[in-house]
Amino acid sequence: MKIISGILILITVFFSFRHGWGALTMKYNESEAFSKLGISKPVLRVVGVLTLLVGVFVLFPDTFFAGNVLNAVLILSILVLQLRAGNLKAALIEIPFLPLPLVMIWLGYPLGNS
Fold it and tell me: With a threshold of 0.85, does the pTM exceed it?
């Protein structure tokens, strides 16, 4: 189980840094999809920073739980915004990613004393 948890942490860190950095460096014309969701450019920057924080938080045992909760909240928020915008296909794409932080919380931090 510790191997699975470790692999999930690596996946989460990779995607968090990739998506967070992408949100911070996104050009204005590329963020049109987010503007359709009602996310302004400054809010997109905040989401990018929060996503980067998820990648850092899940690396350490003291912030592991908080990082996974933040990740679940961000995924759920994007899912709800997609549904509100009427984009069912994009919302369905988010669903498989929602259990990831919840499974990681259940598995626990792999290097802990548990």
Answer: yes
In a domain, 112, yes or no: no
Burial class (CB in 10 A: 0-12, 13-18, 19+), 38: exposed
Does residue 114 lie within any of the structural domains?
Answer: no
Question: Considering the domain boundaries, does residue 9 fall inside one?
Answer: yes
For helices 2-24 and 99-107, give the axis angle rounded to 10 degrees: 140
Backbone angles phi, psi at 10, to 5 degrees: -60, -40
Residue 39 is part of which domain span? 2-107
User: Mean pLDDT of residues grouped by 10 in the chain (114 residues)?
Assistant: 88 94 78 78 91 95 95 94 91 92 91 64
